[in-house]
Amino acid sequence: GHGDLLGGDGQLPEPLARCPVDGVAKAYDIMKGLDDLLTESTDDEKRAEIYFILGTICGDLPTKKVEAEEYLIKAIEISEKLAEINPEKFNPALALNYNNTGVFYNGQGQPDKAKQYYQKAIEIYEKLAEINTERFNPALARSYNNAGGFYDKQGQPDKAELYYKKAIEIREKLAVINPSVSFAHDLAGSYNNAGVFYKNQGQ
Fold it and tell me: At how many degrees (to 10) do helices 24-40 and 44-59 cross?
């Protein structure tokens, strides 16, 4: 894959979880509703969220990649301004936007841009996880895992191994503390990624 999309705490973004896109027609219905909300809304936080969701939906539609990029960048621009004013409140959303924009560019075959956004997401998630480990470690692990996959694909095995190991380290702890299905599933995914990586490295 191109990387894992994140919601605020490492889950599927809430509005998307509420309205699964069953097909292109449904996607266009949701986009129309969001466009209407965007026109009505003067609240920057809400506008950033709507742009983010529109970018995520358009990113899954083959004919909407240009719009997807525009929406994702708008979401980032607003989130950056909000995070400057109130980093404690808005840094989580900004990191989420950076991660998912990295996933988008990775899928579009634009590694330089993908790397830039993956690294920005990791930087923020590392700081957030220091302050609130329980809340942000799942998202940090997923960002590490994305970076591992990215560097593996770019033919940089040392960096790939570093990030895969970091993801596994966090996910092993999460699986012990909270043996829920999702953490066990994430850990299994990390082990699988590492296994494929080492096999390809001839180890």
Answer: 160
> Alpha-carbon distance 158 to 144, whole Å?
14
Q: Which long-range contacts (CB under 8 A, 24 or more apart) does 18-23 make?
A: 21/57, 21/60
- Say if residues 68 and 59 touch (Cβ distance below 8 Å): yes
- 101 burial class (0-12, 13-18, 19+ CB within 10 angstroms)? buried
Q: What is the pLDDT of residues 141-180, one digit of tens each?
A: 999 999 999 999 899 999 999 999 999 999 888 888 877 7
Rounded to whole angstroms, how far apart are CA atoms 75 and 45? 9
CA-to-CA distance for 53 and 71, rounded, in angstroms? 8
Q: Tell me, yes or no, if the pTM score tops 0.90.
A: no
**pLDDT exceeds 70 at position 26:** no
Tens of pLDDT along 33-52? 777 777 676 788 888 988 89
- How far is it, in rounded angstroms, from Cα 32 to Cα 200? 45
Euclidean distance between CA atoms 145 and 21, whole angstroms: 25
Q: How far apart are CA 76 and CA 82, in angstroms?
A: 10
| Cα 87–chain centre separation | 19
Query: At which residue do the structure tokens 């003067």 appear?
Result: 42
